[in-house]
User: Fold this.
Amino acid sequence: MSRVLFVTPPYKCWGQQMIGNWPPLHLVYLAGAAVHAGHEAKIYDAMYKDTSYDEIRHQVETYKPDVVMSLDYLPVTGAISTCTVPAAVEALRVAKQVNPDIHTLIGGPHPTFMYEEMLAEEDNPVDVILRGEMEATLEQLLDALAEGTPLDDVQGVAFVRDGEIVATPQRPHIQDLDTLTPAWDLLDWDDYHYNIDPWGRMASILTSRGCMMGCSFCSQRVFWRGEWRARDPHKVMDEIRHLVEEYEVEFITMIDAYPTRDRDRWEKILDLLIEADLGVQLLIETRVEDIIRDEDILHKYADAGIMHIYLGLETSTDELLNSLNKGTTIDMNEHAVKILKQHDIMIEASFMIGFPEETWDSIKETAAMAARLNPDIAVFPVLTPMPYTSLWDEVHDRIRVWDYSKYNISTPIIEPYNMSLTDVTIALGRCYMTFYANKMNEILALPEGFKRSYMLSAMKVMMRDYGEQFDFLGIGKEKIGEMPKKMADAMKKISGTEKSAEKAAE
Assistant:
């Protein structure tokens, strides 16, 4: 039997970890696989405990693990992972410093495809990279490491032997995802909470894995090899009930890349949630075409407790949508937002900037599109070429930043032909200011109720992190420009309307 420590590194990224802290679900699944294979496991989440590498060192020294594993993983989404790689590797380096005999493991999209680059790094602290889906691989790998047998028969791993990189064949995907058991009992549940009114304990679940869509910037299709597998709706409901009843969870985010793909299955999940009436609130991400498809059952979304939907609207023109291989149109985006508003579901929408052909005028058009569609929350991710996606090859000659820790969709990586990286950063700040200058007074005009309270709380969180955003991006506020007077006035009113998020949480 081995003792396995699963760690998240102390990585921080403005905008990605603002509205809530939710569990590192992939580590929860892996810890469950380790326990299932007869090993002992512990999870230490330095990311949401807001601790340092020194505390990871302390955990290694006191727990004395045989194996330490980390991932390239942001809990908010599986599509953004490359930015956490340097931090995850550093956590494993700390483990090796404590005890060189510890076996260090890493997995996730970036290591899966970039294993040769990672293993060839000077002073590489990683012993084994798990490629692709990891649970079954980890069980077999832990047994091999404990027994001291060669790793050649372990499918889905890469390692260095005698100075040469060895990669074993890929492992087939697990066909029945309901055979996996997340180790919920290993979490420190006090670390996980929704930061927006009405606040409360937060969990994350997966009801499916994979995506067959071809968005050029996303890791999901390539990592899951174009497959999509779904769990039994009844097993999903059992898990939600367990989280609510056993751990007093009040909010759950479904971090599936594409939870709604199968309408019949998805409607069954909604019906089971409505029937159970557990009072839990859900957040999901999905595609605009599924919202349009489900127009006749959107009332079930609301009745089932879905309070927040994230839509990747991405751009202001069909031409740019086509360049991303998004498979949607501006008309579809508009229709999806319109019908969601009719059901009073919170809409968060993304609008990308930073394309190679970007100009100041085109970014103004994107900001204008966001204002016209007027979702409840708008985010403006910077187009980021993950090194294993088709986008990487398409824009390679415009890449100017090679530090993977900056690949966080907030930092410009691609230099447009007619703008500098600094220009894009300044434009990013102005996009947020433009959108929320209009949004704040709209919020103040809302009638008393859930939506007003929710949006006021969200604005307070954003105001709290207003300076942090520009510090994170490495620019001074003075470069963004003067805050519009109506925005400044609205911020003062919002600050004085209700208790602060911190006091309310207490």
